Amino acid sequence: MPTSWSDSAEKAPAGGVGATTRASRTNYVPPHLRNRPPSVDTTSAPVSHYGAAVGNGHQGHGGPNPTGIRSGGPRNDSSGGSSSRGGGAWNNRNNGWDHGRARESNPFQDELDTEEAFGAQENTGINFDAYDDIPVETSGKDVPAPVNTFAEIDLGEALNLNIRRCKYVKPTPVQRYAIPIALAGRDLMACAQTGSGKTAAFCFPIISGIMKSSQSGPRAPRVPRMAFPLALILSPTRELSLQIHEEARKFAYQTGVRVVVAYGGAPINLQLRELERGVDILVATPGRLVDLLERARVSLQMIRYLALDEADRMLDMGFEPQIRRIVQQMDMPPPGLRQTMLFSATFPKEIQRLAADFLSTYVFLAVGRVGSSTDLIVQRVEYVLETDKRSHLMDLLHAQRANGDQGKQALTLVFVETKKGADALEHWLCINGFPAAAIHGDRTQQEREYALRSFKSGKTPILVATDVAARGLDIPHVAHVVNFDLPNDIDDYVHRIGRTGRAGKTGLATAFFNENNSSLARPLADLMQEAHQEVPAWLSRFAARSNFGRNRRGGGRFGSRDFRRDTSFNRGGMDSYGGGHINNGYVASGGYSGGYGPTTVTSAWD
DNA sequence: AAAAAAG
Q1: Is the distance between the Cβ of A468 and the closest atom of strand B smaller than 7 Å?
Q2: What's domain A377-556's architecture?
Q3: Per-residue pLDDT tens for A573-583?
Q4: Residue limits of the Helicase C-terminal domain (predicted)?
């Protein structure tokens, strides 16, 4: 199995403006396939990392002290599978949240269960070619050069050890570029395809930065029962925050960096207790964070890192006021005094413009075709009348069941438009002999998390979901995404189908299309064409028809929503972007829309 | 019009 995805990749011209590089002959090894690590005993290797890593401790447990020299002896590592740590390094560690860390459970344990349930991962038949020749683009001032290996980056031994524990062999494309940029302290707007390792891309630099500055950074004030996180990671759904937290905990394991999650629908007291134990990195959904801020249980004044996952979603109409409030109207340091990183697979232009408010001279990074689906997903569109949808779904599921191997559960994720629709379809599937669960915003948080677990484990291999599950969730083994109801926005479609075809695996996405979706015809047809999918002739006819009234549909969002926009960043070839303008750190409209190929239409920015 | 996010 290829382990080196980018050994021959060119370095991006440092200092270039509008630099464009193409990682040549790459063999991308996605996260979940990196289970052939060099044989390192990752659990017993002594840790010797730079000096002291630090917990941002609560004062009650001996938190930050003005000398910068942390007290406390070697930690009691009862859960890490190693009884003797590598000596002195641990001795200067801050044990500000000793109690918390003594309890730090091994976050790598859960992995094993899933692997067992689904059997060993196959490493054959993966289409690594899909990652060859992946277009990468950076723009901004003095863009740091990408790296080819984790070893090239000074992340620190403790973090490197966790990377090995995660079985990451080589950085993914977005990681190769984003990590050096972030480590250089630069603000970043990063676009990368679904399932390409974005979480690690912003977590590694944050964890590393917190570790490195542990003795030099300013000290948090001592305020009883108030937590002072150094980093804030916001995401649009509770389950995604949960997932980021789980992942970040792995990366931060035994680094002394403490990660806490806070989201709604769960008992706040548990979260408050966790916060009181000390928090370096806070992962949160906006609503619960605002609550915590209002209760004065969290202060953002020490924030040095701000990461928005699914950033375009976080800045769209529904979320923007809340995000502005958190980022601009509380006590968070302004751009320039904090490092801000925005990540998403899609990034509409108008949202990019909005995002500039939160950034300071940032680097724009695009890996792959922005807003595009990956070639690993086979996309099908079928014309299905509203009244026929259920029986059609049944046919698909029957066929799938017939084809599927006995032991292997092929997970199917079915997206519907409404919460009521999700309930109804789940019920209907169940009474027709298909074990299904449903997840949507009217379910209790317990029900939501149970449904997701039940789906992941294969207990209910069908999950009916609203858009709550459309973004970011990493659910291994989803073989099929069905858009029972198509979304109105092509970006939502991109995120939905991105739940399959992850980690280098192929996936299937089937959409039920009818007259109700005519507004999506054109963007959908365009997207499929870019992804080298077969576009049915009838869909093209729909597209041509909707094209006629296209100017009208702009009225919905931000005055003009340009459906042509950036679904294919690469339509005319990424290389042609070389002339892009940089204006105050962001890509100006002229450069942005220029070079986008034959279908270029007036930019929404113009 | 719907979904999400606080309770």
Answers
A1: yes
A2: 3-Layer(aba) Sandwich (3.40)
A3: 333 233 332 22
A4: 403-543
